[in-house]
């Protein structure tokens, strides 16, 4: 198959069309229509074979996760997903692999009403790059900058499952087959918190998605907002799969430093905590308060009243990963 046949067979087919796409994948550029008083949020993520995944990862999961990690960035900004562009480099045309990969990609994109409007297809080592664009009201920008002393720190969902799944695959921890399946479901098929992000726009002071571990990602908020934080590690939320037969210290390590959770971390002022509870009642996402913003810079970890040694190390492409 030629690259154009690949595009027509796997990436033009199987997706929904949006009314604001004037011209999609049939020309040199896509053309989209936006509305007044609207900003466009843009994010790009790359997944490389041998770095982000290996041959054991199902191609359908790769398609899903490639979309999910980008939409998670949009969720952290409170944006409404709109358009996707895919650059795919692959060593050969494997039709069964493409069938599954594109099915996973379209399934999640269609669920969130995203349209694939362009990209590039080339030959080489397997590399998957997706750019996602979303829409934001100009008067409701949610960023990493804005946390204030006294704000409460929340996280969505549960933390540490994806890191635990990788540790189990490597033989670093021992879990039963049922636990392994549950943990790998979180690793392979993360859920971007789009609805939560949009609900947070008028009430949160800052937000970020948790891709490199809570400690590292929360520290980005602290740096941009020029504040510090007191984090209660005994409040970290874990799934039933992670709670089973895994030491507390290991659970904390996965949650704080593991990454690949794609949950949201956000800050809420005291006056808006009731508004948050009202908003959550309509979207069905669990959130947990895990700490509070302080005036003095830096991240401090506590177990009750006892301060613990702090580390902000998360996943790093060019550094040491513990």
TrEMBL record:
Mg(2+) 4 binds at residues 28, 43, 73. It catalyses: thiamine phosphate + ATP = thiamine diphosphate + ADP. CDD domains: ThiL (cd02194). InterPro entries: PurM-like_C_dom, PurM-like_C_sf, PurM-like_N, PurM-like_N_sf, ThiL-like. Pathway: Cofactor biosynthesis; thiamine diphosphate biosynthesis; thiamine diphosphate from thiamine phosphate: step 1/1. It is an enzyme of class 2 (transferase). This is Thiamine-monophosphate kinase. It comes from Aliidiomarina minuta. The gene is thiL.
